[in-house]
Design goal:
- The structure is a single chain.
- By secondary structure, the chain is of the alpha/beta class.
- The protein is built from eight helices and seven strands.
- A seven-stranded mixed beta sheet has the order 1-2-6-7-5-4-3, sandwiched between helices.
- A hairpin with a 2-residue loop joins strand 4 and strand 5.
Length: 255
């Protein structure tokens, strides 16, 4: 087999690692310890590429493709993950000055299912640290923690397209407790805020007269611009980013 001895050794090691990953995953894929199917597929691709490169005596091509795959996998895993967290805990664990990146990194590391591969990384790195894109975030709220900001977003024709809701998370500073607000931009097609409720001073529980705690799922984005948002920032302890909601899951009874 032609090529640099170091390259040949590296490729052989990767080949063995890919085979071990494939067999290990096939043995546990029906248990709670099973790896995601994406990892199995990646292992198979690595195996196929390395085997073809060894057969064609092009180890440098194999190493290049493997490096690309290793760069893509963390991004694919992280970006397609919706990290669950509790709105009640966000205030106590993350101060108002916490940036979007710091909050995402924190909730990712705290969630065992999200960070289960972090133990294989050196220097305290996380899969989140290696991803080029952010994960989604799934915030479970109590209905009493959701308020209407009084702001809505209309399209060019004057039709309302989004509600801006406030998710209030308590944070105790010295002897007083304040609510840190996370702004949620929710499409009107998602019936999180009851239709026809114009008194925005009420919270969701009072307005709807039901208790059905929702999980708000979306991506963290920079705050929208405008005088209304600036007024909210002066009125509330508003985080410097918002959650752009694309799904809401409700929890009825024992859910």
């Amino acid at each position: 087999m032609a090529g640099n001895p170091f390259e040949r050794t590296s490729v052989q090691i990767l080949l063995v690692a890919a085979l071990v990953a494939l067999f290990a995953n096939s043995a546990v894929d029906r248990t709670d310890d099973g790896l995601p199917w994406e990892i199995t597929l990646t292992g198979f691709c690595v195996f196929a590429v390395v085997f073809s490169a060894i057969y064609a005596n092009r180890t440098e091509v194999a190493l290049s493709i493997i490096c690309i795959i290793l760069c893509i996998v963390p991004t694919y895993f992280v970006h397609n993950f919706e990290v669950p967290c509790s709105n009640w805990e966000l205030g106590s664990k993350f101060s108002l000055s916490t940036t979007k990146s710091q909050l995402l990194d924190g909730v990712f590391r705290m969630e065992p299912n999200a960070s289960r591969f972090d133990k294989f990384l050196p220097l305290g790195l996380s899969m989140y640290s290696l991803s080029m894109f952010n994960p989604g975030i799934a915030i479970k709220c109590n209905t009493s923690e959701i308020y209407h900001s009084g702001i809505k977003l209309d399209d060019a024709a004057g039709e309302k397209t989004h509600d801006y809701l406030l998710l209030s998370s308590p944070r105790k500073v010295k002897s007083s407790t304040t609510g840190i607000m996370l702004l949620a931009r929710v499409p009107v097609s998602i019936e999180l805020w009851p239709a026809g409720i114009e008194d925005y001073s009420f919270n969701l529980q009072t307005a709807s007269n039901i208790i059905a705690p929702p999980t708000v799922v979306g991506e963290l984005m920079p705050l929208d611009k405008g005088p209304a948002i600036e007024h909210l920032k002066k009125k509330h302890h508003l985080r410097p980013f918002l959650i752009d909601v694309y799904r809401v899951d409700y929890h009825f009874g024992g859910d």
